[in-house]
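Narrative of accomplishments. A recurring question from our advisory board has been how the design workflow behaves on a single, concrete structure rather than in aggregate. To address it, we present the structure tokens for one chain from the evaluation set, followed by the sequence designed for it. No filtering or post-editing was applied between the two.
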């Protein structure tokens, strides 16, 4: 994992909750991270309609829906125990592994 992605405290497939904007309160899985722009896309959230043109042969023109990216400051990782988006901190385990834990309840968020 890159240094930048580490700073995110987020990973692909993490479940996050949106804390602001039109999708506020909704939860979803991270599909992709964009470290350059500090944005993420979340499954079925912030859907955008994109118009596609027919290429005249195989494909028909129309509207496709796709996930729009969100700034990482708009989402929080979900703690299973708290049942909502939480701030996290890092903790070193006895075996030296570094994991992400919930700042509220100390629940380990990473599956190790
Ligand atoms: Zn928690």
């Amino acid at each position: 994992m890159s240094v930048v992605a580490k700073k995110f405290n987020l990973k692909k497939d993490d479940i996050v909750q949106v804390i602001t904007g039109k999708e506020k309160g909704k939860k979803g899985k991270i599909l992709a991270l964009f470290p350059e722009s500090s944005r993420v896309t979340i499954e079925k959230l912030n859907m955008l309609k994109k118009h596609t043109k027919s290429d005249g042969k195989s494909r028909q023109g129309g509207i496709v829906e796709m996930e729009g990216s969100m700034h990482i400051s708009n989402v929080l990782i979900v703690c299973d125990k708290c049942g909502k988006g939480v701030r996290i901190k890092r903790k070193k385990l006895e075996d030296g592994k570094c994991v992400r834990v919930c700042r509220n309840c100390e629940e380990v968020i990473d599956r190790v």
